[in-house]
């Protein structure tokens, strides 16, 4: 249990990619971390791309970067909804300013671009948003996992083992 005394938020919105929420959720808990599903509204049920429900445990209004050691931003279409929420963008920016771990997979790169934290950084994402990442100033690469300082990125669900190993290593 290498992550005892670590607190991690997984950002949640409708149309999330199920594996990219639940795989890190249980893997990080298995390592002893306290993991919260954080969404615009506490106690609301959000649905994944394939309909799987997730109940938010905290609202974005209840947390701040000071409360967290890391955040995980899953993909699917959820990041497009997340980036419409000013407080979610502010949390990502604050995590970056405080050099805390930000782990983003698949389409979650949209959140990094909206938070304006990728310029000059080596980043990966799902290939369909490569242009968005490049236009935001990232040095985009096609690799299963990339760590650039406090930012960890991966491309797709098949990359989850490497993504989680890198998060756990960064937080240990």
Name some characteristics of this structure.
globular; Rossmann fold; seven-stranded mixed β-sheet; 172 residues; 11 strands
Describe the structure.
The chain has 172 residues and is of the alpha/beta class. The protein has a single domain, classed as Class I glutamine amidotransferase (GATase) domain (Rossmann fold, 3-Layer(aba) Sandwich), CATH 3.40.50. It is 31% helix and 23% strand. The protein contains 6 helices and 11 strands. The protein has a 7-stranded mixed β-sheet with strand order 5-2-1-6-7-11-10, with helices on both faces. It has a two-stranded antiparallel sheet with strand order 3-4. A two-stranded parallel sheet has the order 8-9. It is globular.
Write the layout of secondary structure elements.
Layout: E1 7-11, H1 18-30, E2 34-39, E3 45-47, E4 53-55, E5 58-59, E6 70-73, H2 78-82, H3 86-97, E7 101-105, H4 109-114, E8 122-123, H5 130-135, E9 139-140, E10 145-148, E11 151-154, H6 160-171
Parallel strand pairs: 1-2, 1-6, 2-5, 6-7, 7-11, 8-9
Antiparallel strand pairs: 3-4, 10-11
DSSP helix fraction = 25-40%
Task: Strand order, main sheet: write it out.
Answer: 5-2-1-6-7-11-10
Termini, distance in Å?
Answer: 10 Å
What's the CATH superfamily, by name? Class I glutamine amidotransferase (GATase) domain
Calculate the mean pLDDT score and round it: 98
Count the beta strands.
11
Question: H/E series, N to C?
Answer: EHEEEEEHHEHEHEEEH
The second-level CATH architecture is 3-Layer(aba) Sandwich
Beta-strand content: 15-25%
CATH fold topology:
Rossmann fold
Number of domains: 1
Q: What structural class do you assign from the helix and strand content?
A: alpha/beta
How would you sum up the global shape? Answer: globular
What does the radius of gyration come to?
14 Å
CATH class: Alpha Beta
Number of helices: 6
